[in-house]
């Protein structure tokens, strides 16, 4: 497939999921980027890529487990071949295991860390040269308010806290370039990850009276991915309707 956009390619992980699919469309339609739709779930990655192509956006599906040893290197190669050099990396893939101190074993802890923070680190490392040579490179990481406030599921909360710290720590590696690295920290969002049984309670505990739609978060990711955000770097934007300022959803 020929690259239409040259070096304006966004790699979006978790592109088959609730937030990833909406973000892929936001970046493709709003910023004119070609989109590499990465997800462990082949059917959903393919569906997102097809929807984008149906809307006239250059896109391809990459069914990849981002925790695999070879994921980063092989993604660089295959995205270059199918779409071109990468200007945007948006790390959205994430897993939440609803386990506590007593029932989180080491394998589950490591798996959550691998998906939520080690993979974003390795993917940023793998695409760093592309990002530096882009007109304006952007990395946007999807953390969670749980990474700021703490949460009852410690592996998830710790992984998101690490991702927030990684976001600001990577500035040193991109010093002197046009690359910015930022994160978003959503509160409860209406996607397959949401605990639906708790949705009404969480909406009632949110000052805006509603939980988030993925579009609410994708809009902020779109801004952080665009040229106008060039002065914003190393930050984490909380998007939760004000919920975490006042209390916990619990
Ligand atoms: N839904 C919420 O309430 C909420 C709140 C705060 C933060 N978040 C974060 O938002 C992001 C998007 O989640 P979502 O709500 O859209 O949930 P989702 O479950 O719909 O999407 C997550 C996607 O990540 C993919 N994924 C998981 N493991 C992977 C792997 N090893 N390799 C490649 N892809 C993998 C899944 O297949 C899925 O498509 C996540 O990082 C999540 O932690 C969600």
TrEMBL record:
Any single Pfam family the record assigns to this protein: adh_short
Coiled-coil spans in chain: none
GO molecular function: oxidoreductase activity
Database matches in CDD domains: SDR_c
EC number, UniProt record: 1.-.-.-
Classification via SUPFAM superfamilies: NAD(P)-binding Rossmann-fold domains (SSF51735)
Keywords associated with the record: Oxidoreductase
Superkingdom of this protein's organism: Bacteria
Span of domain Ketoreductase: 8-187
UniProt xrefs under InterPro entries: KR_dom (IPR057326), NAD(P)-bd_dom_sf (IPR036291), SDR_fam (IPR002347)
Similarity comment: Belongs to the short-chain dehydrogenases/reductases (SDR) family.
PANTHER family xref list: 3-OXOACYL-[ACYL-CARRIER-PROTEIN] REDUCTASE, SHORT-CHAIN DEHYDROGENASES/REDUCTASES FAMILY MEMBER
Stated name of the protein: SDR family oxidoreductase
